[in-house]
Amino acid sequence: MTIKDTYKTITEASEETLFKDKNSKFFSYAFPIQNEEDAKQHIEALKKQHHSARHWCYAYQFGTEENNLSYRANDDGEPNNSAGMPIYGQIQSFDVTNILIVVVRYFGGVKLGVGGLINAYKTGAQMALEASNIVEKTINIQYCISFEYKNMNKVMRIIKEKNLQVTNQILELDCKVFISVRKRDSKAIFETFNNQFEIQIKAV
């Protein structure tokens, strides 16, 4: 069984997109996020930017099915499941995570009905995603390798041989080197270092 260790996300905020239906305007935005706090900050900023709008509906997701998946959908006063879930449906459809999509509605005086709202919010979310730069990233495990200075060459040789990514190093009397390893390779890399004399490795 192969371990799924990649996910799709966006690298930067999308350009603003606009969908109109019966005088209502729907402005859409997609943002990369790492947690709920990131999402809140973007939503608050949009509420200030569009202070005269009627609804700020959104959905977000971070994590992956294999690793602490978390999501939320909010209708923000629109009829139940007519806004947040259609937006979230597009996040699932594009198979992206660590993302927030907000669709801001200015009411145009004509009611769209639940079907019209579902279509508008779905379309708004789709447009935001189409305007985004979607990339594939790997799920990585972070390790700390601890050793005495005399073992530096041994550690660095393995890092070079295995082409490992060093994220940080603290080189004093005792040395610590931090590496980032793709999930699917993590067990083998752990074993490689763990089998070395006078070298400790642990996940961080």
UniProtKB/TrEMBL annotation:
It comes from the Bacteria. Pfam families: Impact_N. Residues 22-129 form the Impact N-terminal domain. InterPro entries: Impact, Impact_N, Impact_N_sf, Ribosomal_Su5_D2-typ_SF. PANTHER family: IMPACT FAMILY MEMBER YIGZ, IMPACT-RELATED. Belongs to the IMPACT family. This is IMPACT family protein. It comes from Lacinutrix gracilariae.
